[in-house]
Amino acid sequence: MKIQKEQISDYNKNGLESHNESFDFLANKLTKEGHDVTSIVSKLADFQVAIPSWALGAGGTRFGRFSFYGEPSSLEQKIEDVGVLHALTQTAGAVSLHIPWDVPSDYNAIKELANGLDIKFDAVNSNTFQDQKNAKESYKYGSLSNTSEAVRQQAIQHNLDVINIGNKLGSKALTVWLSDGSCFPGQNNFQTAFQNTQDSLKDIYKGVPDDWKLLIEYKPYEPNFYSTVIQDWGASLMLANECGEKAFTLVDLGHHLPNSNIEQIVSILQLKGKLGGFHFNDSKYGDDDLTVGSIKPYALFLIFNELVYGMENNPQNPDLAWMIDASHNVKDPLEDLIQSLEAIQEAYAKALLIDQNALKAAQSNNDVVKCQEILQGAYRTDVRPLLEKARLNRGGVLSPINAYRALDIRGGLIKERGKNTIATGL
Ligand code: AOS
Ligand code: ZN
Ligand code: ZN
């Protein structure tokens, strides 16, 4: 499945007039307020988010999984799906692979396919939370933290193998998310588990190429329910600092206990030059992996405010690896991802509208009311015409969801792949 340029321009014809009207209206208003609309639109157009290879099939829960049919059953088909998303939205120009779910059989062919669809290979993800077929050791009681040296060695070697695979594809980062921890008090010695993890990560770090990053993801609980070894950003940052300058913390929005101030975490990590990666999703209770912006869009906007501030004021922090880490079991996964991409762009656009100088002035005058007015003034702006313009400028569609439906993409995928295909992943 590949979307042709003519399909996109044909689809856009109907909406162009109305888009032009609403864009001109908004652009005039913003220009009068002192905004550089062209620069905002080009920042939006440049903002690309990686699609995780494991979110292209229907998500599931431990209670069940309901297919949306036409799922990609090979890595090639997964990349084609990302190609569809990117052709429509022009914001999904990268894919993040999970190993061993997505080991390429022909590297050149995969690279060629991705290249033809304008898709880059972003961070590669290792998997030491499941036992692999024919593996000698089991991760039942942990991987990098395990009390057994043999298990730790197997997990370290797996991460080195993942770097090797990523290298052949042009990836520049390894993301390590560990499920290691304990389900019951007393099961683990916290200090031993942390020390083992630190030593193992340092061994992996030795194999991280100079132009790569090691991204260390944290999570407070699940699948372990009493303790997780890398439970929060403090633990992740300590480990990243122990490893060295190529190691960074990765923030996943769903990996915080309720009411955590994620924007503050993001802000301080950037100040310290240690925020390396970002997983977008939304949640009501825990790591729900809900569509980005579906539950707490204002929180997402506040996070983007800090990200924009960091991107503009913290040269000590590297460019971030952006990825969506959401997939749901009651939505067509591609529609879910389109909605997430749109929510990310919307929050980013609104954050770009914040008058940073006025905010700074209001902050120094302790004008609390003005500070809130500035933030909420930006948040209440309907920025969708800016998103449409950014997409149009890059050759995308005015409304990705409507186009996806109008072009009957899922129907086409089912025709091509059949009903009963199943994607590897969660
Ligand atoms: C797990 O909860 C983390 O969010 C991971 O980033 C990711 O979802 C996982 O590696 C996929 O299995
Ligand atoms: Zn994640
Ligand atoms: Zn997660």
TrEMBL record:
SUPFAM superfamilies: Xylose isomerase-like
Domain of life: Bacteria
Gene Ontology MF term list: isomerase activity; metal ion binding
Keywords attached to this entry: Isomerase, Manganese, Metal-binding
Presence of the UniProt keyword Manganese in the record: yes
Protein name: L-rhamnose isomerase/sugar isomerase
